[in-house]
Design a protein that fits this description.
about 120 residues, alpha+beta, five-stranded mixed sheet, globular
């Protein structure tokens, strides 16, 4: 489905998506998870995530950052590809996203702190 079609979804569906995603942002804001670093536009300016107790929490923190900064997933933006750099530290998750206006962005998240935590 083209991203242009995503923004044509009914207002009800868009509201439900937005509310569900905002719930994750609120939950992460009340947790010990913290963001530091830069804008995420390059490995040297990566968004650093700390305080996640598990890899699952850390992944939730990645998505909460994207919901908070990019808007509603599958309405305002979507993930085109996810990759990673999992060698010696730092460890990165790399998300290639497409905004609803067609703009492409690549975001780098430093996940070293929670990588492979059970």
């Amino acid at each position: 489905m083209a991203i242009q079609n995503m923004i044509l979804w009914s207002p009800y569906i868009r509201l439900r998506l937005r509310l569900r995603q905002r719930g994750l942002v609120r939950a992460v804001s009340r947790s010990p998870i913290r963001y530091s670093g830069g804008s995420g536009d390059s490995p040297d300016d990566a968004i650093v995530i700390t305080g996640a107790r598990t890899d699952h929490e850390g992944t939730g923190a990645v998505f909460a950052w994207m919901f908070d900064h990019l808007g509603t997933m599958d309405v305002d933006w979507r993930i085109r590809e996810k990759s990673g750099a999992y060698g010696p530290p730092p460890v990165f998750d790399i998300y290639h996203v497409e905004m609803c206006d067609g703009q492409q962005r690549t975001l780098y998240f430093d996940i070293t702190d929670h990588y492979l935590k059970p």
